[in-house]
Amino acid sequence: MSDNRQPLGWLLPSTVELRAGERIAAHRHDRHQLVYAAAGVLAVTTPVGVWIAPSQRAVWIPAGTQHAHRAHGPTEMRTLLFPAELTGPSPDNKPVIVAVSPLLRQLILALVENPPADRDELGRLEQVTVDQLRRLPDAPLHLPEPRDDRLRAIDDLLRQAPGDRCSVAALGQRVGASERTILRLCRRELGMTMQQWRTQMRLVHALELLADGTPVIVTAHRCGWANASDFIATFAAVIGSTPGTYQAQLRNPG
Predict the structure, then answer these.
(1) How is 145-183 classified by DSSP, letter by letter?
(2) Whole-angstrom distance, CA of residue 218 vs CA of residue 197
(3) Rounded to whole angstroms, how far apart are CA atoms 129 and 60?
(4) Nearest 5°: phi and psi at 31?
(5) Which tens digits make up the pLDDT trace of 207-219?
(6) What is the rounded (10 degree) CA torsion for 169, 173, 178, 179?
(7) Cβ–Cβ under 8 Å, residues 26 and 76
(8) Most buried of the four, 12, 35, 240, 245, by CB within 10 Å?
């Protein structure tokens, strides 16, 4: 983030209430946007992939980036728009996931829902928000968009059945590629291993199911984990809370 002080009241806040499954069509902003789901789970889709924002994370969308939204579960979307000249947390000017600390959450909610009337106080809140966003992006809940036709075909297969446990060799056979080729393409195009990609996809599906009220054990099996304990451990390592705690926070945000 830039260290230059900005005029008071330079952030543009907004709030949108979305029903489960509701979408906002693809659009762009001439400013940077920070998107946060105060309740529910929000999927942000861009031409280069999908970013998932549960309540512990927000998505930074650089100015001019085409993006669409989809709510999983009843979702309270809160956004802040930043001037395009501001240097954001993304070093390559692409969308990134940003960790939302308890302080940053309260700052977002205060600026969107109850901004102070005093201009000096408003300016201080804005500056602290910028300081918080100087943190490094969090480990992303991001599904990259593959370019290779074979990876695209696998992407379709895994999205349709994230709980499918078939081997990489079997997936490759279905799309006309060897296991070695698939593994090489994953590293080259997606920047991750096949196992990491598959786990990301399963976690994203798990977030969606939990937001829709699916029980933890059912979610684990639908997403391909052989037992609930392995699912809980993986989920907690990435999300920062157990699936049960996460689901309870969705029902009672804050």
Answers:
(1) ---SHHHHHHHHHHHH-TT----HHHHHHHHT--HHHHH
(2) 22
(3) 13
(4) -125, 165
(5) 989 988 899 999 9
(6) -20
(7) no
(8) 35
Instruction: Decide: 159 and 142 in contact? Cβ < 8 Å.
Output: no
pLDDT > 90: what percent of the chain?
Answer: 51
CB atoms within 10 A of CB 109: 18
Rounded distance between C-alpha atoms, residue 180 and residue 182, angstroms: 6
> Phi then psi for 149, rounded to 5 degrees?
-60, -35
Task: Answer for the pair 203, 141: CB distance below 8 angstroms, yes or no.
Answer: yes
Give the residue-averaged pLDDT of 7-34: 88
Question: 199: helix, coil or strand?
Answer: helix
Amino acid at site 210: L
Among positive and negative, which fits the CA dihedral 142, 192, 134, 236? positive
Nearest residue to 112 via CA among 18, 33, 215:
33
Q: What are the tens digits of pLDDT across the range 27-39?
A: 999 999 999 998 8
DSSP type of residue 122: H
Q: How many CA atoms lie within 13 A of 144 on its CB side?
A: 19
pTM over the 0.70 mark: yes
Q: What angle do CA 162, 52, 56 make, to 5 degrees?
A: 120
Three-state SS for 190?
helix
CA 6 – CA 4 distance, rounded (Å)? 6
